[in-house]
């Protein structure tokens, strides 16, 4: 296939849209300044994520930043959240840690508070505000969802999935997801790496403002539903410092770079393709063990999704090296594991397009439908925002018979999924108008 793909590339003129580089055009992104804050303690970039105990133990973390420069032992740096189950009675208060980091010339303070008194019953709405005695955020809210799904469980909301979004060119995706969150359709968002693209802006030492702007931007949905992430290659700058400080994830694996959780009938395993996941590595062994446990828990959490930044199957022609050379190597590490543990779907990004496979194993489709699939379905979901090589040119169908669909849009999109006991539905949503432009459903009897 690699030889044929290379031949095609030499014979066919591929239409590549070239956009100005992010680094050259960053004047269009306003520098994050303290003057935008009403006070030095005004919370911004508020987002929530699961704590180490997960939703089953009522552990949701709230994270935010303030412009005040962090100083050890300063009471002005301490953060807290007040919360309750009725809007007019924020009856509980929890305090947490405040900290900072210096990479990218970050000068402010980050705050993390675990809401350790919140209810755990599905359907409970938690109202909260965070800040300090002098300056509070507005009152926000999120709703606790089911962890398990059985035959009697009502229809679940959607989980949004994005990769490769970034600060620029993502307005329509953020707005579309935000509207879905506010309407109650989407109740969690997972992000498979390449998050703010800060390393494309002044890669030397002065780009922390990109993370500040990005986190403020996504707070329009991430403050109301869990925002769960894993790193991509664009997070590696400064040894992943910004990622680790802005987006701490549950540290149940012994590493801050990979984790898993159950939510709305789906087991999510989010791992790092930017760290060693070769056979025999620590991360690989953790993946194997976690998936074995998830596969044994299908009675209440019937579906398993693995999310990593780099694709295992893809057919993009513009970035053909990733598909011809790199993807087979990654498959040699993980494909047998995913197959043996009956993983339903693998979601990646890295390529800034959308495509999905039939159930496929060893480069052969096991079937041309999604009924009782005998192998994993692979989705590339990298069209949330970044315009780098965002060109819908793909390998011809006859050279990739295992590919079920690819998007021919130059525009942006995001994926959503929802589970019931015997079906797992996916929809691709156009960011510009929120219309569904692709859908498929996996069923199991």
Give a description of the structure.
The protein is of the alpha+beta class. 18% of the residues lie in helices and 27% in strands. It contains six helices and 23 strands. The chain has helices at 2-11, 171-182, 208-222, 237-246, 282-295, 320-340, and strands at 44-50, 60-66, 80-84, 92-95, 97-99, 109-115, 125-131, 140-143, 158-162, 186-192, 227-230, 259-263, 266-270, 303-307, 345-348, 354-357, 360-361, 364-365, 377-381, 403-406, 413-419, 423-430, 436-443. Strand 14 (303-307), helix 6 and strand 15 (345-348) form a beta-alpha-beta unit. Helix 2 (171-182) runs parallel beside helix 3 (208-222). The two termini are 35 Å apart. Residues 1-30 have low confidence and may be disordered.
């Amino acid at each position: 296939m690699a030889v044929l793909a290379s031949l095609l590339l030499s014979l066919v003129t591929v239409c590549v849209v070239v956009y100005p580089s992010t680094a050259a055009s960053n004047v269009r992104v306003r520098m994050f300044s303290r003057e935008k804050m009403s006070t030095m303690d005004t919370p911004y970039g508020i987002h929530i994520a699961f704590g180490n105990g997960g939703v089953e133990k009522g552990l949701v973390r709230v994270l935010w930043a303030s412009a005040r420069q962090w100083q050890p032992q300063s009471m002005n740096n301490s953060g807290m959240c007040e919360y309750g189950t009725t809007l007019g009675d924020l009856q509980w208060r929890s305090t947490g840690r405040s900290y900072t980091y210096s990479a990218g010339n970050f000068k402010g303070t980050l705050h993390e508070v675990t809401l350790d008194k919140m209810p755990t019953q599905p359907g409970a709405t938690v109202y909260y505000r965070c800040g300090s005695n002098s300056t509070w955020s507005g009152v926000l809210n999120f709703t606790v969802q089911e962890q398990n799904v059985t035959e009697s469980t009502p229809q679940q909301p959607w989980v949004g999935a994005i990769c490769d979004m970034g600060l620029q060119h993502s307005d329509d995706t953020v707005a579309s997801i935000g509207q879905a969150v506010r309407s109650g359709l989407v109740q969690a968002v997972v992000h498979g790496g390449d998050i703010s693209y800060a390393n494309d802006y002044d890669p030397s030492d002065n780009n922390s403002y990109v993370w500040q702007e990005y986190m403020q931007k996504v707070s329009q949905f991430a403050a109301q539903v869990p925002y769960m992430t894993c790193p991509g290659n664009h997070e590696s700058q400064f040894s992943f410092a910004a990622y680790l400080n802005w987006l701490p994830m549950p540290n149940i694996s012994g590493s801050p770079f990979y984790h898993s959780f159950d939510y709305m009938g789906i087991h999510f395993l989010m791992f790092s393709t930017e760290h060693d996941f070769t056979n025999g590595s620590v991360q690989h062994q953790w993946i194997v063990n976690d998936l074995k446990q998830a596969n044994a828990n299908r009675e209440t959490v019937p579906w398993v999704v693995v999310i990593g930044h780099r694709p295992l199957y893809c057919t993009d022609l513009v970035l053909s090296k990733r598909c011809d050379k790199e993807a087979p190597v990654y498959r040699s590490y993980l494909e047998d594991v995913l197959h043996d543990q009956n993983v339903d779907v693998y979601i990646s990004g890295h390529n800034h397009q959308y495509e999905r496979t039939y159930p496929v194993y060893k480069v052969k489709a096991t079937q041309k439908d999604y009924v009782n699939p005998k192998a994993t379905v692979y989705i590339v979901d990298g069209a949330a925002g970044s315009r780098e090589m965002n060109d819908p040119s793909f390998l011809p169908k006859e050279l990739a018979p295992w590919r079920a669909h690819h998007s021919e849009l130059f525009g942006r999109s995001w994926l959503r999924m929802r589970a019931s006991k015997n079906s797992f539905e996916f929809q691709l949503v156009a960011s510009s108008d929120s219309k569904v432009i692709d859908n498929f459903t996996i069923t199991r009897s």
